[in-house]
């Protein structure tokens, strides 16, 4: 299963984005299913609501929720990154934890997720 990060969803939803089309073709070509996290869903819906866009399409994406186990892991991930001298956004530690705990590969355009690969995060490439 591939967990789609916010930046990937935004590109895919942009009908004028050649990059988004290429990203979607890569997902389809993998033969794997896809989902997102409740955190990513919030970020995407915030942007859609802010710019008065239609949210029906994005709401069809299967969504994994943030659990107590995810909160434990995300705190450890954030702390480990900090100890390595790498400051990461808290929401990204949360997304990484959800992906790890659900056995998903994360599809993101953000390089700073690399810091979590030592803790079990698999990146979809």
In short:
This protein has 125 residues and is α/β, with parallel strands linked by helices. It has one domain: Rossmann fold, CATH 3.40.50. It is 50% helix and 11% strand.
Note poorly predicted spans: none
Strand content: 5-15%
Question: How many individual β-strands?
Answer: 5
Mean pLDDT: 94
Q: So, CATH architecture? A: 3-Layer(aba) Sandwich
The CATH topology name reads Rossmann fold
Instruction: Give the overall shape.
Output: globular
Spatial order of the strands in the main sheet? Answer: 3-2-1-4-5
Count structural domains: 1
**Spatial gap, N to C terminus:** 13 Å
How many helices does DSSP assign? Answer: 5
Helix content: 40-55%
Q: In this structure, how is the largest beta sheet organized?
A: 5 strands, parallel
CATH superfamily assignment? 5'-nuclease
CATH class: Alpha Beta
Describe the structure.
With 125 residues, the chain is an alpha/beta fold. It has one domain: 3-Layer(aba) Sandwich (Rossmann fold). The chain is 50% helix and 11% strand. The chain has 5 helices and 5 strands; from the N terminus they run βααβαβααββ. Strand 2, helix 3 and strand 3 form a beta-alpha-beta unit. Helix 4 crosses helix 5. The protein starts with a strand and ends with a strand.
